[in-house]
Write a structure and sequence with these properties.
By secondary structure, this protein is α+β, with helices and mostly antiparallel strands. The chain is built from 18 helices and 21 strands. The strands form five sheets. It has a seven-stranded antiparallel β-sheet. It has a six-stranded antiparallel β-sheet with strand order 5-6-7-8-12-13. Helix 1 packs across helix 7. The radius of gyration is 23 Å and the shape is elongated.
């Protein structure tokens, strides 16, 4: 799960890209990058947070009124500097691209691009495959004059070759910016407008911060082309958009559960409100089970709206019993388990006066591997809690995600083959309360056409039979690919 940003402005866009990426930092802490175009591509990317990758000197050379940016959370690839986005190719025209998602046929595409098109991929990042497919299909068009129709035909052929989740933004040198989503619309992408400037972002919060008015989501299977012409300042920009493919829209439900900022709107649904409703549904389960805690404490920050709803419904106090160190990143998206475990104690510290001698209901968004939850429970018991109940406002995670969340192997899930009672014993709680799948879908209010694959095992796209074993082999450091 990454963060993407693209801006077509009337002056240099680098500062807006920098500010927008800071607003999307929660979506990826592994690497960051910006590419702008001004007669040539200007590129800077590297490992680390946005504020560490960029400085005044390298920002100053990223000139141009059109550009793209990215914050990376690694799934496919080793996560090194070579895999940081954006990527670019020199032909045709020169194209730079960023994307959020995961190609389920990445390994197949990598072989196909080399065998059929003689295109060598130099990284382990799947956007390089998507970019080369796009470039290859654009080469099939009449390149004397790039038209919107040529872009439509190109992206339609990309849809036939690229499978999985992808929300992509690309700059075509000297022509403009292209944004498109996969036919299922699994990953979010929203468009904003400010005067005659346009922006695309993974979340509406980034557009709000930059002063853009949200126009709406890029639809599943839709391409938007904003043409940058020499006559731009006389005629204004030309925007073209077309829905190329219609299929079942299945946005990732984990956006509302965990990834997106609470002040963002995903698919027209406010994230804060969705999490509050998830808390109400969880509270009903707590009441049904006859559990009567003295206090509700959220695991900051994602769980605050849900914990507030639980306390309100059960009519018990809601307290901040755990204080977060703002300078420690999100543990879920850290690249390896040892770093996650090490950061828990550094990230959170209990307020003993709110915990000691009480039956505490802790509210969290999910349990993946269980190690973080166990550390949290030990911390709360160490602060003097009489009993610890653990409420989770999503259902048990049991199935690998192949669309861009770093839980891709079956062995990563504590709930894979265990009952709730056994999980409760393993993480050391007096009771464990999970959300139901029905409560999850009801709370999001998008209907049943959402991607719940990590909970139910129902994948909206074709998933190659060997994909899971290939991912496991890659994790073990075995060579995969051409």
């Amino acid at each position: 799960m990454c963060g993407v940003l693209g801006i077509c402005g009337s002056k240099d866009v680098v500062l807006e890209l920098y500010q927008g990426l800071n607003a999307l930092q929660h979506r990826g802490q592994d690497a960051a990058g910006i590419a702008t175009f001004s007669e040539k591509f200007n590129l800077k990317k590297g490992d680390g947070l946005v504020q560490n990758v960029f400085n005044p000197k390298n920002l100053a050379r990223l000139t141009g009124n059109i550009g793209i940016g990215h914050v990376r959370y690694p799934t496919v690839g080793g996560g090194g500097a070579d895999d940081a986005q954006p990527f670019y190719v020199n032909s045709p025209f020169g194209i730079a691209m960023v994307h959020n998602g995961n190609l389920v046929n990445y390994f197949e595409l990598k072989k196909e691009l080399f065998r059929k098109d003689f295109r060598h991929l130099n990284s382990g990042c799947d956007v390089e495959a998507l970019l080369n497919v796009f470039a290859d299909e654009l080469m099939a068009e009449n390149l004397c004059k790039l038209s919107a129709e040529a872009v439509y035909r190109t992206v339609k052929r990309v849809y036939k070759r690229a499978e999985g989740s992808y929300s992509a933004v690309a700059v075509i040198a000297g022509h403009g910016i292209v944004a498109f989503r996969d036919p299922h619309g699994i990953k979010p992408l929203v468009m904003g407008k400010k005067d005659d400037d346009y922006a695309f972002a993974s979340e509406s919060a980034a557009l709000d911060i930059l002063g853009y008015n949200t126009v709406g989501d890029v639809a599943p299977g839709e391409v938007i082309y904003i043409e940058e012409t020499p006559k731009f300042f006389k005629e204004g920009r030309r925007l073209y958009r077309k829905k190329l493919v219609t299929t079942k829209h299945t946005p990732c439900i984990f956006e509302w559960v965990y990834f997106a900022r609470p002040d963002s709107v995903i698919e027209g649904i406010n994230v804060y409100s969705a999490r509050f409703r998830l808390g109400l549904e969880l509270a009903k389960r707590v009441k049904q089970l006859g559990i009567k805690p003295d206090v509700v404490i959220p695991i900051p920050d994602t769980s605050r709206p849900a914990a507030s709803a639980v306390a309100e419904y059960l009519k018990i106090p809601h307290r901040e019993g755990l204080i977060k160190n703002r300078y420690i990143g999100r543990t879920f998206i850290m690249p390896d388990q040892s770093k996650r475990e090490q950061s828990v104690r550094q990230k959170l510290n209990p307020i003993r006066e709110e915990i000691k001698g009480k039956d505490v209901l802790v509210v969290d968004d999910s349990i993946v591997r269980g190690t973080t939850s166990r550390e949290l429970v030990n911390m709360i018991r160490g602060a003097g809690a009489k009993k610890v109940y653990f409420g989770v406002f999503s259902p048990p995670l049991r199935h690998p995600c192949v669309y861009g969340i770093d839980m891709q192997t079956k062995g990563e899930f504590i709930a894979r083959n265990k009952s709730e009672e056994k999980i409760a014993r393993e993480i050391g709680v007096d009771a464990l309360i999970y959300q139901t799948v029905e409560g999850l879908i009801k709370s999001i209010k998008f209907g049943e056409s959402v991607c719940t694959a990590c909970f139910t095992g129902k994948y909206p796209t074709r998933v190659p039979e060997k994909l899971f074993s290939m991912i496991e082999n890659e994790r073990m450091g075995l060579k995969i690919g051409c």
